[in-house]
TrEMBL record:
Boundaries of every Aminoglycoside phosphotransferase domain copy: 27-244
Gene3D superfamilies the record matches: 3.90.1200.10
Protein name as catalogued: Aminoglycoside phosphotransferase family protein
Pfam families: APH
InterPro entries from the UniProt entry: AGP_Transferase, Aminoglycoside_PTrfase, Kinase-like_dom_sf
Length: 293
């Protein structure tokens, strides 16, 4: 955590918001954009504190935590197991960075080597279909593509350069029409909490948007392909197509996969050669399989 972040002030603010002081806290795993802390209060209550500490997200922290709060408010009372927003300091007045305090849901993330296949894959598909069925009173922002044109450079490590080039050609053409749908926008097994094969919570709502449903499904599939290979990704897509009653729209699968490429001169978010190889294989499969593209 950066030296200019006042963690003591943030904890005092969280305690005041719940009417019970924070007596202990632990860092939660993950947190690419933020420092995520699990708090225990004096009265035995638990909460979770997001501090938007990592750039470039820190610069846009007010927008991100406000969107997360709005998404959680929109999901309250629905079948979607989202945290409850408890307090917001979007401007970072207290700790020096945007802060969002929310309820702590039961369950835990899967271990890295735990594949969410079978019943878990079905639970993911059913949950995503439920998310897409929501119709908030106020629509969220239009989705942003993460496959910027500056990224359209065939990676030097690819064993399938032709597939990447064809993917860039797909994205250079017109995008298909879509029904505006409520999106989590960062949906993946990594942002789910589990108890056995059941999903107990879906977290990290800072990118919530309106857009094509298949972009959410594509992101869930890409994450599965990176973590567990193409079979896991395809299984999830088949289950989602059935649960949602939607035919696969390959353009959005291409967009999501290309979005993992770094801009020129930047390193990938993940530098492991096995993950790069899995991304390479996933993009190649998307471009070759008529059922996907």
């Amino acid at each position: 955590m950066q030296d200019d972040v006042d963690i003591a002030a943030a904890l005092a603010w969280a305690g005041s918001a719940l009417g019970s002081p924070v007596v202990s806290y632990d860092a939660l795993p993950g947190g690419l954009t933020s420092t995520m802390l699990a708090l225990r209060h004096d009265d035995g209550a638990d909460s979770v504190l997001r501090l938007m500490t990592a750039e470039p997200w820190r610069t846009h922290g007010a927008e991100l935590v406000s969107r997360e709060r709005d998404a959680q408010v929109a999901m309250a009372g629905t079948s979607v197991p989202a945290p409850t927003s408890l307090a917001l300091d979007a401007d970072g007045t207290v700790a020096g960075v945007a802060a969002h305090l929310m309820s702590r849901l039961p369950g835990a993330p899967l271990d890295e080597d735990e594949e969410p296949g079978g019943a878990r894959s079905q639970a993911m598909a059913d949950l995503l279909a439920a998310i897409h069925a929501q119709q908030p009173a106020q629509p969220f922002r239009t989705f942003q593509s993460w496959a910027w044109e500056a990224k359209w450079v065939v990676p030097s490590w690819s064993r399938h350069p032709g597939s990447w080039q064809r993917a860039f050609e797909v994205l250079a053409g017109p995008a298909p029409a879509y029904e505006p749908t409520f999106l989590h926008r960062d949906f993946s097994h990594r942002n789910l909490l589990w108890a056995g094969d059941a999903v107990t919570g879906v977290v990290d709502w800072v990118e919530t948007s309106t857009g094509p449903a298949w972009l959410d499904a594509a992101h869930g599939a890409s994450n599965l392909a990176l973590a567990h290979g193409t079979d896991a990704a395809q299984d999830f897509l088949r289950r989602y197509a059935t649960a949602a009653g939607r035919a696969v729209e390959g353009h959005w699968l291409v967009m999501d996969a290309v979005g993992y490429l770094p801009p020129p001169g930047k390193r990938p978010l993940f530098g492991r050669s096995d993950l790069l190889a899995r991304l390479d294989d996933w993009l190649d499969l998307v471009m070759r399989d008529p059922a996907l593209s």
